[in-house]
Every structure is written in C-alpha cells, then in structure tokens.
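Page 42, continued from yesterday. The earlier attempt failed because a stray header line got pasted into the input along with the sequence. Redoing it now with the clean sequence only.
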Amino acid sequence: MSDTTPTPPQAGEPNGEDIVAAHEADLLSQAQAELAELKAKSADLADQFLRAKAEAENARRRAEDEISKSRKFAVESFADSLLPVADSLEAGLAIKDATPQQIREGAEATLRQLVAALERNKVMAINPAPGTKFDPHQHQAISVVPAEQEANTVVGVLQKGYLIADRVLRPALVTVTAPK
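This time it went through. Structure tokens are written below.
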C-alpha cells in the first residue's frame, strides 16, 4: 500500500496556505497601486475640468463685456462722422449778413458732408429712377397714377429711402404706374 498522507513541509519550504497568502498580498498591493494611480488620474482630470470650466466662464464674461462695449459705443464712429456736419451748420449760422447765394452754397456743402458721412457708415440712399420696377422690399407706394410706361414701375420719388448695410432703414416713398 502506498502512503497517501501528505508529507509535512520541510523547514524553509512554503506550504500551500503561505503561497495563497503571498499571492493575495501581491494582488492586494497591485490593486492598491492601481487605485492610487486611478485616484491621481481622477484628481488630475478634476483639476483639468475645473480649469477648463473657469476658462470657459472667463471667455463668456469677456464676450459679454465686448458685446456690452460694442452696444455702448456702436454709434461712436457714426457720431464722429457727423461732427463736421454740425460744425459746418454752426459756422453757417454764425455768419449774420450772409447772402442767399452764400447760404445756398453753405447748405449744399453741408449736404455733401452729410451724404459722405452717411455713406462712410454704410447708410445708402434708395432713390429709384423713373421706370424702375417697383420693389416692395425697398419702396412704399403712396399713389398709383396712369402713365405711359410699363405697369408697376416707379413714376416719381416723393421721399428717398435709406439702407443701412443692406437692411432697409426707411423705404422710399414712390408713385407707381397703374396696371393697364
């Protein structure tokens, strides 16, 4: 018969329980190292997130400040363009004994200054020539008259209209030909 009883371990030789315990200790230390590494990554990502959030908030605040300043000072350039017109009007009014011819010349020069200031600021006149096709987006028909030209075209302009950067500020008041 053979002996089936296990032989006791010799001194210095690990037994099964010691091997399992050592393996579990090794797994535990690996898990703890991995946990520490993940905690470090998590802390780094949390820091990056907070920095990104703060940067986004700062960018939003800067954009709001820019919008506020743009609204506040949007007319600054336009007003600066109109100052010479105001100066010309004041200079013309300061002349006490001006002749009608001088007044007219001064008014024409001031009008040229005003038109130039408007154009510099992208305010363009809508002044359709007679015979121009009626455009309801830019013209407002005040009356319809019979005329010897194509129907639904401009006969005359009662008041100029104005565009500001392709947007109608005021439509031109026009008379139009009646349909035949």
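Notes: The mean pLDDT is 90.
Reminder to self: strip header lines before submitting.
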